[in-house]
């Protein structure tokens, strides 16, 4: 009798849909996020105008006199990066998905009516220095130059952010001109480290079938290669170059594409362990974990940022 009762309970539990098998399709009119290279000139201009607006808008956090809203984004990202609350563990992907959403809202508060756009660096990996994102008129400007007035950092001298002076270097007060320092090409490889985020590199990432193994390969591989390839503040995340958000919208898109290869099992797939101060694995992550946003927006919950057409999200790629 007890065996039959136990079998009945097991059967009932197996019949219940697990969370990973139950994507919540709650949005009916998702807005399309497109690549920078596919956006119209008008869309690019509107995005850039709003991004410049964020670099001039007064700080919401009021952490330092004359800080801007863009400084707030850099400050929050840096403060949560040490200790590691947003990198090198499972929360990397949902937290940055949330961060991009908060930035998208800030763009819209500056009059932008579009969505977050992404830099498809996989497509541009064979010649990344020629990518449309670096155009001085319809892009973010190009590489930095050693002008002698920016410390040891190469100053961006063209594009809409050529006169932008970030306040923070990581979480420290170090006013400086926006900087980039592209990794030069070597042994026939493209500059800006293109081989590190090309199709072959992404094939290795996409071969992972377990969430945290996929996350680790993506974060430590192509994602990191873009940061180090662009260099300057982008490498150390020192000043959060405005192109950071196109980079992380692309990271978000690649995660979504991975989810779509098996949406029933991957939409809510989430595993791994929290970081600890001594580097040992902490508690296991859960979909109920908090995603801190440092005052830029109310904190979130992981489960609300797993499905781009459910929870707190409503967009498509």
From TrEMBL:
Keywords: Copper, Metal-binding, Signal. Gene3D superfamilies: Di-copper center containing domain from catechol oxidase. The keyword Transferase does not apply. Pfam families: Tyrosinase. It comes from the Eukaryota. InterPro entries: Di-copper_centre_dom_sf, Tyrosinase/Hemocyanin, Tyrosinase_Cu-bd. Residues 1-15 form the signal peptide. SUPFAM superfamilies: Di-copper centre-containing domain. Residues 87-104, 241-252 form the Tyrosinase copper-binding domain. GO terms for molecular function: metal ion binding; oxidoreductase activity. This is Tyrosinase copper-binding domain-containing protein.
């Amino acid at each position: 009798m007890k065996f039959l009762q136990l079998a009945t309970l097991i059967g009932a539990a197996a019949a219940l849909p697990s969370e990973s098998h139950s994507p919540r399709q709650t949005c009916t009119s998702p807005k399309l996020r497109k690549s920078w290279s596919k956006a119209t000139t008008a869309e690019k201009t509107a995005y850039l105008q709003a991004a410049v607006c964020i670099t001039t808008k007064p700080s919401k956090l009021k952490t330092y006199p004359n800080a801007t809203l863009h400084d707030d984004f850099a400050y929050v990202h840096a403060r949560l990066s040490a200790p590691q609350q947003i990198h090198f563990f499972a929360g990397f992907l949902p937290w940055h998905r949330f961060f991009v959403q908060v930035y998208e809202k800030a763009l819209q508060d500056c009059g932008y009516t579009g969505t977050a756009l992404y830099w498809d660096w996989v497509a541009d990996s064979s010649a990344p220095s020629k990518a449309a994102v670096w155009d001085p008129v319809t892009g973010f400007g190009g590489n930095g130059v050693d002008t002698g007035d920016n410390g040891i950092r190469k100053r961006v001298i063209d594009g809409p952010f050529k006169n932008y002076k970030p306040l923070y270097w990581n979480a420290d007060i170090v006013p400086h001109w926006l900087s980039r320092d592209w990794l030069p090409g070597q042994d026939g490889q493209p500059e800006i480290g293109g081989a590190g985020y090309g199709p072959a590199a992404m094939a290795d990432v996409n071969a992972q079938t377990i969430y945290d193994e996929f996350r680790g390969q993506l974060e430590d591989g192509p994602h990191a290669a873009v940061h180090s390839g662009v260099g300057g503040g982008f490498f150390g995340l020192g000043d959060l170059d405005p192109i950071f958000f196109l980079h992380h919208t692309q990271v978000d898109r690649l995660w979504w594409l991975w989810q779509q290869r098996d949406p029933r099992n991957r939409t809510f797939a989430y595993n791994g362990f929290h970081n600890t101060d001594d580097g040992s694995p902490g508690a296991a992550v859960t979909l109920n974990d908090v995603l801190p946003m440092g005052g830029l927006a109310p904190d979130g919950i992981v489960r609300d940022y797993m499905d781009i057409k459910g929870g707190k999200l409503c967009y498509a790629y």
